[in-house]
User: Fold Phosphonate ABC transporter ATP-binding protein from Marinobacter flavimaris.
Amino acid sequence: MTPASYPDMMLRIEDMGVTYPGNVLALRPTTVDFNKGEFTVLLGLSGAGKSTLLRSLNHLVQPTAGKVVSAEFGDLDNRRTVRLHRSRTAMVFQHHQLIERHTALQNVLTGRLAYHSTWRSLLPMPRRDLELALHCLERVGLADKALARIDQLSGGQQQRVGIARALAQQPSMILADEPVASLDPATSEKVLGLLRDICQEDGITAVISLHQLEYAQRFADRIIGLANARIVFDAPPADLKQHHLNEIYHGNYETKPRTVPVPATKPVNPQPKKLEIAR
Ligand SMILES: Nc1ncnc2c1ncn2[C@@H]1O[C@H](COP(=O)(O)OP(=O)(O)OP(=O)(O)O)[C@@H](O)[C@H]1O
Assistant:
């Protein structure tokens, strides 16, 4: 396969599978293309293989079968192409993995480290990196928090710093592993909306693992559903039907609105029981 023959392809996994030590099959050999600018959400029950698939896309998890092919750098079969691919692939984590006692700006600047040699990163960052980091904070609405320490920010703000750090890397791809799992619903929507809008504006390819079907339907261009280490659904959200959900969630997902059980009504002022006096 030559990347040029698939003009929309950003990254391909080719017969790629992962078996962990102890013979734990986490992802059966699978072939999938991730296309340029697409916002893909991975759905599935806990243990279905979402993180494994996501993390194998930049070899944070080493595939044990098949390969990953980058349109930009070719097969990720040696340290050089893996390093180049990682420099253009930013990660956003559930627990953001920021340095809590450093400022938002210092954390965002770490997104630039891949562009500098080890010795250079010991020196103060160049002015253009500072400007870029500030611009990234501005894009996530946190320019005024640039000098605030991470531990002084709310969970949602911390995750927005995590996104700004990813943007500072000037990535062509963002991998986000359950980026809103620790946030309340309103903040989750805000953070996901922000991530989706920025990816759209910059043409960044995104692969996000989520637990919430509602967010996947609302924000994704494409949903990949996993069950038992296998892809069981791969299409736009509009094509996701109840029988697919049954397969992804092993029959435990109901799309119809749930009826909230009405509690047995108690009289507001119950009449005091007449005392039966045994005579
Ligand atoms: N480092 C590891 N060593 C051994 N087994 C692992 C390892 N990481 C994951 N697994 C196993 O691989 C399978 C897939 O795990 P994975 O974390 O990819 O699932 P997931 O869908 O992301 O789950 P969750 O939603 O809970 O994060 C599970 O059976 C899990 O126990």
Summary: The chain has two domains: 1-88+172-279, 101-170. Confidence is low (pLDDT under 50) at residues 256-279.
